[in-house]
From TrEMBL:
It is found in: Cell inner membrane; Cell membrane. Catalyzes the sodium-dependent uptake of extracellular L-proline. Keywords: Amino-acid transport, Cell inner membrane, Cell membrane, Ion transport, Membrane, Sodium, Sodium transport, Symport, Transmembrane, Transmembrane helix, Transport. It comes from Psychrobacter urativorans. Signal peptide: none annotated. The chain crosses the membrane at residues 6-28, 76-95, 126-145, 165-185, 190-208, 228-251, 272-298, 310-336, 371-389, 401-420, 427-445, 457-475. This is Sodium/proline symporter.
Length: 499
């Protein structure tokens, strides 16, 4: 084994041990009940909440996808960063405080389907079942795709087999999620968020230094193609709207907003917001800068780069020592694993609370629910590994649409359930179904606009979000107001927030 591989493996091995160690610590620290395992006892501090939400959100997209987008298309990639930043900020302002208070008022809801059912006092369980099915289906596939990323990283950077990378990535994530539950996931996310932030600062700084500074790098990019510096190059109004619309998805991502349910107090949310937004802005700038510097670096070294999304890996290989390179590769794994663990836990919680307890054992004890939750983590991981066993698996095609699917199905429902007293259960069901179906038809219906697939012309989340919103308003207004007990809980939520 060469020196580079040995140094890299030392760093990665240390990283894996830290993650598992956190899982063991969380196992002994958390309460052995469903709220403790699935929501950390609603006792997360603001820093852990913020970095946990950020790390579980960004995934490998931050270190691979966004730099690759900047590398390939230039500064037009800034539009998507602006959309995401705006969406994340509004999520902290609109959703976070209301959801933290309302989930407790709504019979101490622990999962998002749990909240929907309790918020609207849905005795038919329709809301809970439909939302749980959406979460279980999409997140199982999403987890599989994230595992593919881990397998490919091991294959391309460590010369190990894809299968080995798949099992190692899954094994470590399952280990700390299985034992430590939500607390372990959140604490590891915090550590992973710190690692990702460091990587997103050091890589572009070293790259720009190697290229002679920002001015020299900018001039080099200009000489390659001046359009790379034009923020509207090749863009239409519809195209810009599509990129900015990524921000709409934040309101409906279960693995992100569950952090708001778990923070210890609504008073901690402003601190969490400041930490989380600072982390996000620095990380996004670093990712964009990495792709920008990468374009000049590849030109300078006359290398061939077949896949723009590997530019971060190129820098780790050529600009850093083996130990630092291993740390930077750990940052990619941190991004991948933080998302996998969050998704595993969300699916596990939904299987436990919204399937097992609802249909099989309504009197299940707290310890039994925790046991079912742990079994569910393993089962979902196994299914995901099976789906990910082929690196070219078609599940990857779903990942680019999962954000739109959750955003259209859940985002309007979450926002209006927290802000509109008049909304009723029928409107909630209609909005969720219309949003999900719109995205599915928009993406897979085979429809075109001027010879272009609809989703390439306009991102599916836009029509999905709009039509879901219309359905919520229209159906709620046509089917009568909610029960007095429902509006009473809404008034209690507003009272807690000082509205």
């Amino acid at each position: 084994m060469n020196g580079v591989s040995s140094g890299v493996l030392i760093s990665l091995g240390a990283y894996f041990l830290v993650m598992i160690g956190i899982g063991i610590y969380a196992y002994f620290k958390q309460a052995n009940d469903s709220e403790g395992y699935m929501l950390g006892g609603r006792n997360l501090g603001p820093a852990v909440t913020a970095l946990s939400a950020g790390a579980s959100d960004m995934s490998g997209w931050l270190l691979l996808g966004l730099p690759g987008y900047m590398y390939a298309d230039g500064v037009v990639s800034i539009w998507i960063a602006l959309g995401l930043t705006t969406g994340a900020f509004l999520n902290y302002i609109i959703v976070a405080p209301r959801l933290r208070v309302y989930t407790e008022i709504a019979d101490n809801a622990i999962t998002l389907p749990d909240y929907f059912a309790n918020r609207f006092e849905d005795k038919s369980h329709m809301l809970r079942v439909i939302s749980a099915l959406v979460i279980i289906l999409f997140f199982t596939v999403y987890t599989a795709a994230s595992l593919v990323g881990g397998g490919k990283l091991f294959e391309s950077s460590l010369n190990l087999s894809y299968s080995t990378g798949l099992w190692v990535t899954a094994g470590v994530v399952v280990a700390y999620t299985l034992f430590g539950g939500f607390l372990a996931v959140s604490m590891t996310d915090f550590v992973q968020g710190v690692i990702m932030l460091f990587a997103m600062v050091i890589v572009p700084v070293v790259a720009f230094t190697d290229l002679g500074g920002v001015s020299a790098t900018t001039e080099a990019v200009r000489n390659i193609d001046p359009n790379l510096l034009n923020i509207t190059s090749g863009m239409t109004i519809i195209g810009i709207i599509s990129l900015l619309a990524w921000g709409l998805g934040y309101f409906g991502q279960p693995h992100i907003i569950v952090r708001f349910m778990a923070i210890r107090s609504v008073k901690d949310i402003p601190t969490a917001r400041n930490i989380g937004m600072s982390w996000m802005i620095v990380s996004l700038i670093g990712a964009l800068a990495t792709g920008f510097a990468g374009r000049a670096y590849v030109q300078k070294t006359a290398m061939t780069l077949e896949d723009p999304e590997t530019i971060f890996l190129v820098f780790t290989q050529f600009l850093f020592t083996p130990l630092v390179s291993g740390f930077l590769l750990a940052a990619i794994l941190a991004a991948i694993m933080s998302t996998i663990s969050s998704q595993l836990l969300v699916v596990s919680s939904s299987l436990t609370k919204d399937v097992y307890k609802l249909f099989f054992d309504r009197e299940a004890s707290e310890s039994r629910q925790v046991m079912v939750g742990r079994i569910s983590v393993v089962l979902v991981a196994v299914v995901s590994i099976m789906l990910a066993s082929n690196p070219e698996s078609s599940v990857l095609s779903l990942v680019s649409h999962a954000w739109a699917g959750f955003g259209a199905a859940f985002a309007p429902l979450v926002v209006f359930s927290l802000t509109w007293r008049r909304m009723n259960r029928n409107g909630a069901v209609a909005g969720m179904v219309v949003g999900a179906l719109t995205v599915i038809l928009w993406v897979y219906g085979g429809f075109e606009h001027n010879g272009m697939p609809l989703n390439d012309w306009l991102y599916a989340i836009v029509p999905g979000f709009v039509l879901s919103t219309i359905a919520i308003f229209a159906v709620s207004m046509m089917t009568g107001g909610p029960e007095a007990s429902v509006t009473a809980k809404f008034a209690e939520m507003e009272s807690h927030l000082g509205k």
